[in-house]
Amino acid sequence: RGRGTSPFGFTPIEPVPAGTDKVVVPEGFTWSTIIAWGDPILPGAPEFDFDRQSAAAQAGQFGYNNDYTTLIRGKSQNDATLVCNNEYTNDELMFRGYTGSASLTPEQIRITMAAHGMSVVAVERKSAKAEWSYVRGATVNRRVTATTPFVVDGPAAGSRLLRTSADPSGTRVLGTFGNCAGGTTPWGTVISGEENFNGYFSAATAPADQAAAYQRYGLTGSKGRGWERVDGRFDATQEPNEVNRFGWVVELDPSDPTSTPVKHTAMGRMKHEGANVTIAPDGRVVAYMGDDERFDYLYKFVSRDTFRKGNSPKARKHNLGLLSEGDLYVAKFTGDGFEDGISDGSGEWLAITKDGKSQVPGMSLEEVLVWTRLAADKLGATKMDRPEDVEPNLVNGRTYVVCTNNTRRTPSQIDEANPRANNKHGHIIEITPTRGDDTQPTFAWKIVLIAGDPNDPTTYWNGYDRSEVSPISCPDNIAFDEAGNMWIATDGNALGACDGMYLYPLEGPHKGHLQQFLSVPAYAETCGPLVTWDQRTVLAAVQHPGEETGGSPETPLSQFPYQGDGQPRPAVIQIRPTR
Ligand code: FEO
Ligand code: CA
Ligand code: CA
Ligand code: CA
Fold this sequence. Notes:
Number of domains: 1
Number of helices: 7
InterPro entries: PhoX (IPR008557), TAT_signal (IPR006311)
Bound molecules: MU-OXO-diiron, calcium ion
Region (Disordered): 545-579
Strand content: 25-35%
Protein name: PhoX family phosphatase
């Protein structure tokens, strides 16, 4: 199909059939691995050895299943710090003879706990045209795992709902996991969403006073992943408040490997896909956040204090507290009618907290922050098709909300912001804040992409010729390049193709001209994405290669990243022009 040449000078690739174990990039581009699961990053950590894993080794090695990926530019063009979320582990692909979590040895459980969290690693290149490689043993390198100490801040810190027998203060939590999407702040920190935390707890019974919350957060009946066998806090019957210490936005300062990462209670607790910030005209910081569950909500946080420019220790210290206090809102979308042929309308931010007070009748401040889903239910927010990455585009001042899919929406549940029943392929909504000010209580919105096969009449291509756009399914993570073009990564392609990455220009003559740039290996999801500041490198995190029924160490369904290990390894790759 003649889709022409994209504004980025590449001819889009064709969809690659599902199950193909290959990385495909456009002609004129090349790819290589920067770092893979198990690569040693801390001093003294051993080389990766699939058959000789240990928890101690893993704690010094790159984690598993990389999702959000960022590069923080260093002192020169050619050095940077790579920070990556390690969302979860595929235990069935990590260990021979796995037959379920009961088959894991305690040491194997500790390995999986050490493979979660976040990885921080220095990267460098010889010149602007050279490829990036990681620096083993660099001073900034760090692993944050399921046992790393965190401090809790904000209004719910110390709440009765956060106190446990190991931490009666309710302010010190061990670990982070389920870290999915994320963002990089203007003050140089990384924020990361704790998403599917519920699955890590065995929750045979819910405490009577938390039954509704346990139900709403998917904890009721959760079987866990065996972690309770090495650490009793993962048994919710023993330690019913431990679950409340996960599901937050966490903030990590990658410039200081000795810093204690923070869990920000002011930003609410949900299955936080991630968070991305922008600075409003008055200097306050606005964070947009999705809660990735079918029929869950879009949220916004507005900081109490304002951003300070500059890198003085005083400014840095101030900015590190910006996400600690502020107002939390949930979105309500109103359509202006389908008659105009587009899904669009106005929106309202409903306050959950304001000026340090709960705005939800019958719920205290700590309750609305810990049980944010219950608070949003009461306010009548709009039930969305799984809001994943939500990211402000700093070039055009608009924010993009990626609704990945929702096959459970029925025709009677359609609204203009979620306009398709059995939404297998997802859609992307553009939000324009009133008067260009993200702190305003209202916004305008419209859908800019309804994904699927271009021949499917329910898809929407922003006015672009259907014969010239790439098929796309299940958008998940997004990023913007320096020109404001959107890059879309997909998870769970339902068109019989591998997942991939796509360029979607939002302005200019190619506006709406969706072009496939990358296809990832068998059964992997595409994460990242990231386009470097010099537009020379695109980063992609290849998550869960080989994750499919029948995949095991004995019958691996992927060999990615093709380094001769015989087993798939999640990895971060770079794609660069050959010239
Ligand atoms: Fe971890 Fe919502 O994807
Ligand atoms: Ca309309
Ligand atoms: Ca995701
Ligand atoms: Ca993003």
